[in-house]
Design goal:
The protein is mostly helical. About 55% of the residues lie in helices and about 0% in strands. InterPro entries: CB, DNA_brk_join_enz, Integrase_recombinase_N, Integrase_SAM-like_N.
């Protein structure tokens, strides 16, 4: 019913093919080297586009924080991973989440356009709404001055 497999022959073929590659195990808890490489390529590309050193430093810092949390190959990162990263700290302002989201969207759209990844995991992530701030009301003294004028 099942086909017979020549185990020795298969091992030899596999050994021959794998001998052409350098394979290194990624330990749990480490940032995947693939993601680090992709971040460096992205920063280099943006440097050539003429972005300011300040912007490049911010991009690198934000992407490094993301890589420290996610710890996966770039092509294995999902929308859920990005959402988890953006929502992990409930005490940050919406403007900070918007900045983080913007950097990640830029990075992953660049990876997709350069064909390093097949699908951009940030396409379904929408920018958070602006925080609504109540207008500052006039004090009693200011109201009285306004009434008298």
């Amino acid at each position: 019913m099942y086909p017979t497999i020549d185990v020795e022959n298969t091992k030899n073929k596999l050994s021959t093919v794998l001998s052409e590659y350098y394979i290194q195990r990624v330990e749990l808890g480490e940032v995947h080297p693939d993601l680090e490489d992709k971040i460096q390529l992205f920063i280099s590309a943006k440097k050539l586009e003429g972005l300011s050193p300040f912007t490049l430093d911010n991009y690198l810092m934000e992407l490094s924080m993301f890589a420290d949390i996610v710890k996966r190959k770039a092509e294995d990162i999902t929308t859920a991973d990005v959402r988890m990263y953006l929502s992990q700290d409930g005490n940050i302002r919406m403007s900070t989440i918007r900045k983080k989201s913007s950097v990640l969207k830029s990075f992953f759209s660049w990876l997709a356009s350069e064909e390093y990844i097949k699908r951009d995991p940030t396409t379904n992530i929408k920018a958070p709404k602006d925080e609504y701030r109540l207008p500052k009301s006039l004090s009693i003294e200011e109201l009285e001055l306004l009434r008298e004028s």
